[in-house]
Design goal:
disordered C terminus; alpha/beta; 7-stranded mixed β-sheet
Length: 776
């Protein structure tokens, strides 16, 4: 048992079969911190291996015991604080023998490796050779038979750290989301100058063998063209590109944006460079053209909230995988599928990743896209549809109206843009309703075109205007305007009011035949409290705002030790923002409505902070959801902590307020909104065909009014009526919320002695079986 609880943590990029340079990614420190703290929590000894595989070979001071305090204040740091290096020595058997000897001497039989496919392949090779390496070490007299017996097998678990998101089997690798943040910051800045001067900008992003960054960036900024290695442009692309850019200018666009992955190539396998594209555009069109190569800017900076939470969750899962491992357990990699932590056999993932490269080199590009996974394929298909106007020859004579309901949030406009463009592609007439249900009742309805939504993806708030008014008292006027404007379907984008409003419209179908039309609700609220979806558009942007503010608040105490900050977050009665921001910012506690607390809990938290002030970490962060308790207000908690901490620590409080609803959308919210908007209109198109009877649309079945939401691993449509039983209408939250299960992680990482529920641990799944005939 003792041996099974020993584990070593190291970030390793040195062993790359393709000879790529060693790299680091934002979010690795969150993974290191979580692995260390959960390892210590389980009673394990945890060691750092500095400088990757080279540190493993060299041993000595490169392998050091980790402590709880040694991983404090790491969350907001980019890169990896324990170093990463390429290692020629580890490529040789002699080097791996030295590494094995160093591990055996310290009694280490569990290895956690954070890296790319080359690093993880090296780890698996090390594990496969382990018995032979030990035998050679015994023969050479470097270790005793007893030591070899105690370390008879080596367990390996991997976490993928790569900004390229080039590892098959996981939706997102650690560092990808942060890299997208860096890219989008640059794109937004460049867009403003490009519009001012009517310029064409060509941006080159990383991605030597994988076009994920380029593809998602193109989707998130509405780029005119994207070059990715998985799908080279068709022959004659030069003419097509120039024609497209000229058409955009003719429609009144003042800028053109082209995104190029560094590994972009032609069908003939020749590189396509940003300079080559610039020369083409300048020579053929005479446009003022500039190129920007982002380079290593993408690897640096502060990790996003998503990467911190991903790294933390992966770190916890990695320790659980090591502790549950047996000699027969294959080396696994912990990864993300939807919002689930999953374990996949390491070499299966590596094999599929290699299959993608092989498919690209052999010209099987459609297969390469499919092998990248469903998420990549969906992104590609959505981008292709929305980037350029290509309406059908025959109009559908269908009118689809869009409206925003509730408080504004970042990402709403991305959903409107994609819904409008997808509708036009389907041949529908798209109608914009201003100011929510009030606008629908007052007839504030007008056609919305392809070009009128240009540039909306990156805009915060609601361009259509939004109000909290529910339709219940306006049904007469609403039904009249639905008939007057001949509206055949409704897309409602908003928060809990959008959900309740949708329900009221469904109930009104009995009285008003005009409302018997297909309806889809797209959750968009910072509170993330809409039943039927694990995530809402806008929540990620708010979460990043809170996290970055908490970083600044904590940093402000760097010169003033022994200080505790009380920070109030939005969310209504939903504790999602407080919980996730607590995990991302390293909070000591997060008070939420869903988890009842009393004076004894507050007392425990104060005592915990008193003990914390005795260590080298003399800062505290407490988050409080705005409606967690009507009596234990932010002022009450501030006063309590101030009184009880007298002479030990002082307190400060911050109410973040409406800054959480503003700002430009994060890459996640832009991408998520784009996918949701497009999928909603495709669903409505099919539903309209089903509901067409006797020359008119008539929809009154429960499944003709749905919420489109992300549930675990997929976007699903659920009838509004079916979700009523899972709704707490008084407190405006779903009765079951997935994120409550990861709250214990935050408490364990803050050093609370609680029980971690492992009843829902992830079993090893398989990735190869998902490939179908293409992968055979």
């Amino acid at each position: 048992i003792f041996l099974a609880q020993l584990c070593t943590i190291s970030t390793k990029f040195g062993f790359r079969s393709l000879g790529q340079t060693c790299t680091s990614a934002e979010g690795m420190n969150a993974a290191v911190r979580a692995t260390v703290r959960v390892g210590l929590y389980t009673g394990a000894k945890v060691y750092f291996v500095h400088e990757g595989y080279q540190g493993l070979v060299d041993g000595a001071d490169n392998i050091r015991l980790a402590t709880w305090e040694s991983v404090s204040m790491m969350l907001q740091l980019g890169g990896t604080v324990i170093g990463s290096a390429r290692s020629k020595d580890f490529r040789t058997r002699e080097g791996r023998m030295k590494a094995a000897g160093n591990l055996v001497k310290l009694g280490i039989t569990n290895l956690c490796v954070i890296g790319g496919d080359g690093s993880l392949t090296g780890a698996n090779e090390f594990r496969t050779e382990w018995s032979g390496l030990l035998a050679d070490l015994v023969k050479a007299g470097k270790i005793t038979n007893e030591e070899a017996k105690k370390s008879s097998h080596l367990n390996i678990v991997g976490m993928v750290g790569s900004i390229d998101n080039d590892f098959c089997g996981t939706d997102m690798t650690i560092g990808t989301d942060s890299a997208l943040h860096r890219i989008i910051e640059v794109v937004d800045a460049i867009t403003t100058t490009a519009q001012s001067h009517q310029r064409t900008f060509i941006l080159e992003v990383m991605g030597r063998h994988c076009g994920y960054l380029a593809l998602v960036t193109a989707q998130a900024c509405g780029a005119d063209w994207v070059f990715i290695p998985e799908m080279p442009p068709d022959e004659g692309w030069e003419d097509h590109l120039c024609r497209r850019l000229a058409n955009q200018r003719a429609r009144g666009s003042r800028l053109n944006v082209i995104i190029v992955a560094e590994g972009a190539m032609s069908r003939a396998g020749q590189p396509i460079t940003s300079e080559q594209i610039k020369k083409l555009v300048t020579d053929r069109l005479g446009f003022d053209t500039r190129t920007t190569v982002l380079g290593h800017v993408q690897r640096g900076g502060t990790p996003s909230a998503f990467d911190r939470i991903l790294g933390s969750r992966m770190g916890v899962e990695a320790v659980m995988a090591l502790l549950e491992a047996t000699p027969d357990t294959p080396a696994c990699v912990v990864s993300l599928s939807g919002n689930l932590a999953v374990r996949l056999p390491l070499m299966e993932c590596v094999q599929v990743t290699k299959d993608v490269t092989a498919a690209m080199s052999q010209g099987r590009f459609d297969e390469a896209i499919k092998l990248r996974g469903k998420s990549f394929e969906n992104n590609w298909n959505t981008y292709k549809l929305l980037a350029h106007i290509n309406p059908p020859d025959v109009k559908s004579n269908i009118n689809v109206a869009l409206l925003n309901i509730g408080a504004p949030c970042a990402g709403m406009n991305a959903a409107v843009r994609s819904a409008v463009r997808m509708g036009i592609i389907q041949g529908h007439n798209m109608l914009a309703v201003h100011d929510g249900f009030d606008g629908l009742a007052e007839g504030q309805i007008e056609p919305i075109t392809w070009t009128s939504v240009s540039g909306w993806t990156g805009k915060g708030g609601s361009m259509l205007g939004t109000k909290r008014t529910l339709p219940g008292k306006l049904l007469e006027e609403i039904s009249q305007n639905i008939a007057k404007f001949n509206i055949h379907a409704l897309v409602i984008i908003g928060g809990f009011e959008a959900y309740v409003g949708g329900l009221e419209l469904v109930q009104a179908r009995e009285k008003y035949e005009e409302i018997c039309i297909p309806i889809v609700v797209i959750p968009a609220t910072v509170s993330n409290n809409v039943p039927g979806s694990d995530f809402s558009i806008g929540a990620d942007t708010a979460l990043n705002t809170i996290t970055s503010t908490c970083d600044r608040i904590k940093q402000s105490a760097a010169g003033t030790k022994r200080r505790v900050f009380i920070v109030e977050t939005m969310g209504g009665y939903c504790g999602y923002l407080a919980t996730m921001a607590g995990l991302a910012a390293g909070a000591d506690a997060a008070y939420i409505f869903e988890e009842k607390f009393g004076i004894r809990d507050l007392e425990t938290n104060v005592e915990h902070l008193v003990e914390k002030m005795k260590t080298t970490v003399k800062r505290g962060l407490i988050l409080r959801n705005e409606s967690c308790n009507s009596n234990y207000t932010t002022d009450f908690i501030f006063n309590l902590y101030s009184e009880e901490g007298k002479g030990i620590f002082d307190c400060r409080k911050n109410v973040l307020g409406h800054m959480q609803q503003g700002g430009t959308p994060t890459p996640f919210d832009r991408n998520f909104g784009t996918k949701m908007g497009a999928k909603s209109v495709l669903w409505l198109t099919e539903k309209l065909k089903e509901c067409y009877r006797h020359g008119r649309i008539f929809a009154n079945t429960p499944d003709s009014a749905c919420v489109l939401g992300m549930k675990k691993r997929a976007l699903t449509f659920q009838p509004l009526a079916d979700l009523k039983s899972d709704t707490d209408f008084e407190h405006r939250i779903p009765k079951s919320q997935w994120w409550l299960k990861i709250r214990p992680i935050m408490k364990i990482l803050a050093k609370y002695d609680i029980k971690l529920d492992t009843s829902e641990h992830a079993d090893i799944e398989h990735v190869i079986k998902k490939r179908g005939p293409l992968g055979k």
